[in-house]
Amino acid sequence: MRPAWWQSLLRRWDPFLLLFLAGFFTFSHWVMTSASPERLDEQWLHQGLALTAFLVAALVPFRWWLAVSPLLFLGGVIALVLVLVVGVTAKGATRWLDLGVTRVQPSELMKLAVPLFCAAYFHWRQGMLRWWDHLVAFVWVLVPTALILKQPDLGTAIMVGVIGGCVLFFAGLSWRLILPVVVAVSVAIAALLHYGDRWCAPEVEWPGLHDYQKGRICTLLDPERDPLGKGFHTIQAEIAIGSGGVWGKGLGNGTQSQLAFIPERHTDFILAVIAEELGFVGVAGLFAGYLILLFRGFSLALSSGLWSGQLFGCAAVTGIFLYTWVNAAMVMGLAPVVGVPLPFVSYGGTALVSLCLMLGVTASAAAEPLRGGGRR
Predict the structure, then answer these.
(1) How confident is the model at residue 196 (pLDDT cuts 50, 70, 90)?
(2) Which of 115, 107, 112 is nearest to 153 (CA)?
């Protein structure tokens, strides 16, 4: 007997994900009443668009997503090129396309297009995989990542590269290829810690990085190097986190947040507002929600009847977890300031829609049945 139409809808929309999205959106609205009350109406609009994106994405069969993934990827790459040619520049970065009625940030949508296209590539090559298939997929990841770096947008470039790389990893990328990268990064970090004072001297140029990116990394090593400039964000966020204590000062009662000592307190540094006003208990509760969402996401991804669905879902959920970790590390002074918002909580439009699209496509993949036997 076929399930009723409403049962099919619930299976695709996953009541658990809907409940948690509603919880995150409600919490975001509550915190925004303190962090930036003048933006509440816009945030409601963003959340409505994001929820609609989730519902629609989950309704579209995952095999259709695989079929249109080349168009999404190609369109995204073209949009990234257009950004470099005719994009809107703000705060020293060219990241937006002006469509007249609104601005869009194509790099955010590549968080969906890149892992989806890579999953589709492995789906088409299933049963015929060779070692060079991972190299080809790496190129699909590298091209948009390099274009996003050119804007420049280091934070989004890292996220797109990592989420795309997760598809390669879950598709069976050999540890013999991963280990050299891990060793190289570890050696670079150790060298930076040892020679930081010398390398961070003003006259030393860092190949491939802009001066402000160098400044962010050097500020991470020593925020007091420029306490009223590049180190201001980190120092004020740490003060807010430390002053919040266990229970916090109460919503709307934070001194660092209400006196505007915390820059970007409604976007990248909203976690500092939460820590100061809701304390350790508020932050712990929020991250408990992220962990539960993480486990639910992996459960949905692994239940997909398609191997490509599992690849995409696991990469998407891992990407959301890394998004959360990078934002928290950035606010606590454990990572450079790279402009990564707190998922589902920070104010924003394009980033929120892209994350909900990723969850919606994951839910769509989970609803895909196994057909024809054999490897999924």
Answers:
(1) confident
(2) 107
**CA torsion angle for 335, 337, 343, 346 (degrees, to 10)?**
140
d(CA 275, CA 298): 28
Helix, strand, coil percent content, the chain, rounded in steps of 5: 70, 5, 25
For 280-318, give the DSSP string. HHHHHHHHHHHHHHHHHHHHHHHT-SSHHHHHHHHHHHH
Question: 34 is written with which tokens?
Answer: 């303190």
Q: In this structure, what token pair is assigned to residue 257? A: 């947040």
- By the 10 Å C-beta count (0-12 exposed, 13-18 middle, 19+ buried), 375 is classed as exposed
- CB–CB of 330/223 below 8 Å? no
Kindly tell me the burial class for residue 194, based on how many C-beta atoms sit within 10 Å of its own C-beta (0-12, 13-18, 19 or more).
exposed
Tens digits of residue pLDDT in 202-245: 878 887 777 777 777 887 777 777 776 777 878 888 899 999 89
Contact (CB, 8 A) for 331 and 269: yes
DSSP notation for 90-113 = ETTEEEEEE-SS-EE-HHHHHHHH
Omega before residue 152 within 30° of 0, cis: yes
CB 73 within 8 A of CB 140: yes
The letter for the amino acid at 210 is: H
Determine the Cα–Cα distance for residues 268 and 347; give it in Å rounded to an integer.
9
Query: From CA 187, how far away is CA 109, in angstroms rounded?
Result: 33
Tens digit of pLDDT for each residue in 333-346? 888 887 788 999 99
Which of 13, 27, 45 lies closest to 342 in space, CA to CA? 27
Can you give the length of the chain in residues? 376
| DSSP E strand boundaries for 134-270 | none
> By C-alpha distance, which of 76, 98, 85 is closest to 156?
76
**Rounded to 5 degrees, what angle do the CA atoms 148, 154, 157 make?**
45
The one-letter code for the residue type at 135 is L
DSSP 206: -
